[in-house]
Specification:
Largest sheet: 4 strands, antiparallel
Strand content: 25-35%
Subcellular location: Cytoplasm
GO biological process, one term: phosphoenolpyruvate-dependent sugar phosphotransferase system
CATH topology: Histidine-containing Protein, Chain: A
CATH architecture: 2-Layer Sandwich
Keywords: Cytoplasm, Phosphotransferase system
Radius of gyration: 12 Å
Strand order of the largest sheet: 1-4-2-3
Family: Belongs to the HPr family.
Number of helices: 3
Pfam families: PTS-HPr
Distance between the termini: 33 Å
CATH class: Alpha Beta
Order of helices and strands: EHEEHEH
Oligomer: single chain
Helix content: 25-40%
């Protein structure tokens, strides 16, 4: 199991476009991926679940990945957060 705290750093937070991008990236992996923020834990492969976090800019979220390809799934999610969901370009 891999756990990592991440900060939502893109200006609009986990809005619809950023959430869709995250779900699309994670859907390629077999591992179970959850995000926790503000006392809520959701399936990170669910658009509605991630949207329910209402994670705005500056929110800290905990990423938890568990499964056969957990390292690759975690790396992909972390890279997307680090790239600010590709919204700066």
């Amino acid at each position: 199991m891999i756990e990592r705290e991440l900060t939502v750093s893109n200006r609009l937070g986990l809005h619809a476009r950023a959430t869709a991008k995250l779900v699309q990236v994670l859907s390629a992996f077999r591992s179970t991926v959850t995000l926790t923020a503000k006392g809520r834990e959701v399936n990170a492969k669910s658009i509605m679940g991630v949207m329910l976090l209402a994670a705005g800019q500056g929110t800290t979220v905990k990423l938890r990945v568990e499964g056969e390809d957990e390292a690759q799934a975690a790396d992909a999610a972390i890279a997307l957060f680090d790239r600010r969901f590709d919204e700066d370009s």
